[in-house]
Amino acid sequence: MPGSYTAREKWEIAKISAKTLKQAAASDGPHGTTDIVDPRLGNRLETIRQRGEERYEREASAVFQKLEQAENAVAKAKADLKTAPDSRTKATARQALQKAKSDLSKADRAARKY
Q1: In this structure, how many other beta carbons lie within 10 angstroms of the beta carbon of residue 88?
Q2: Which domain holds residue 66?
Q3: Which of 6, 32, 59, 70 is the most exposed place for a label (fewest CB within 10 A)?
Q4: Does some domain include residue 31?
Q5: Distance CA 63, CA 67 (A)
Q6: What's the pLDDT tens digit per position in 2-40?
């Protein structure tokens, strides 16, 4: 699962990865008897990844809610346009429909990232 990391978290992941690589290189090797990689580094990395995944889920949920709201707004604007009694109301409804479609397009682009 992808994550959504802050700049600080990205920096910390890189730092921990470098430390882990350095410690692993200092060990006896893949079949050696001593593994000197600090387990706290792995725990910290896992904590950061879990937070990133939780943040990603929250962001994705919010984006898809926004997309659904935009789709509903387009449907309402189309209904308003079809039921407009006079030309002045139709012009206003047409503008509302254009704005709703624009908002839907923006929400759709954002949702494609997830």
Answers
A1: 9
A2: 7-112
A3: 32
A4: yes
A5: 6
A6: 788 999 999 999 999 999 888 888 776 666 555 678 889
pLDDT classification of 90: cutoffs 50, 70, 90: very high
Rounded CA-CA distance 74/90 in Å is: 15
Distance (Å, whole) CA 34 – CA 50: 29
Selection from 23, 5, 24 nearest residue 13 by Cα: 5
Q: Is residue 1 part of a domain?
A: no
The residue assigned the tokens 């706290």 is 40
Q: CB of 5 within 8 A of CB of 52?
A: yes
Q: For the chain, what is the mean pLDDT? A: 91
Considering the entire predicted model, what is its pTM?
0.72
**Range in 18-32, 37-51, 75-89, 98-112 with the lowest mean pLDDT:** 18-32
Residue 86 has phi, psi (to 5 degrees) of -135, 175
